[in-house]
Amino acid sequence: MDARFQCYLRDGAIMWRLLGRNNRSLARSVIGFTGVDLAQADAVTVAEVAPHAPVDLVSDGGSAWRWVLLVDDVARATSGTTYARRLECVRAVDRFRRAAATAEVSRELLPDRARRLAGNGARFTIPPDATQPEHSSPVSESPGSRPSRQP
Predict the structure, then answer these.
(1) pLDDT digits (tens, 9 = 90+) for 79-120
(2) Is there a contact between 55 and 79 (Cβ–Cβ < 8 Å)?
(3) Most buried pick, 31, 54, 116, 137, via CB within 10 A?
């Protein structure tokens, strides 16, 4: 299976994530959206700018690294996991850039993880003509991280 963007519910917001060919998370949206169409549109935008958009490398005290992709100086995507070494994080940026360039955006919306763990593993698909609100709500990032710009 090729890399793909997948939308899912998390704490009442719709988020997207980029899954690699091995089904592991390469990236996720920084903000949550109120509509699946908005989340999908953001995933498409991130995919278009991924090859050339600036990326900040962020360390939490030097013990864990992650990356953040910026569009017009606004965080739009972040790594799907943290990395023990800066070099691993830099390599993850390269994997993200390559995967995002060819990834499809799935129409399927996965339910909140808490519901899946409780035994409700049902998936559902949003019809193409579903109307969605036109705004999003930010999801906070952890304070105290120190960014460093990757060239």
Answers:
(1) 999 999 999 999 999 999 999 999 999 988 988 765 444 444
(2) no
(3) 31
Helix orientation angle between 86-102 and 36-49, rounded to the nearest 10 degrees: 110
The pTM score is 0.73
Q: Residues 28, 2: contact at Cβ < 8 Å?
A: no
| Nearest by Cα to 48 from 88, 24, 76 | 76
SS3 letters across the chain: CCCEEEEEEECCEEEEEEECCCCCEEEEECCEECCHHHHHHHHHHHHHHCCCCCEEEEECCCCCEEEEEEECCEEEEEECCCECCHHHHHHHHHHHHHHHHHCEEEEEEECCHHHHHCCCCCCEECCCCCCCCCCEECCCCCCCCEEEEEC
Instruction: For the chain, list the domains and their CATH numbers.
Output: 4-130 (2.30.29.80)
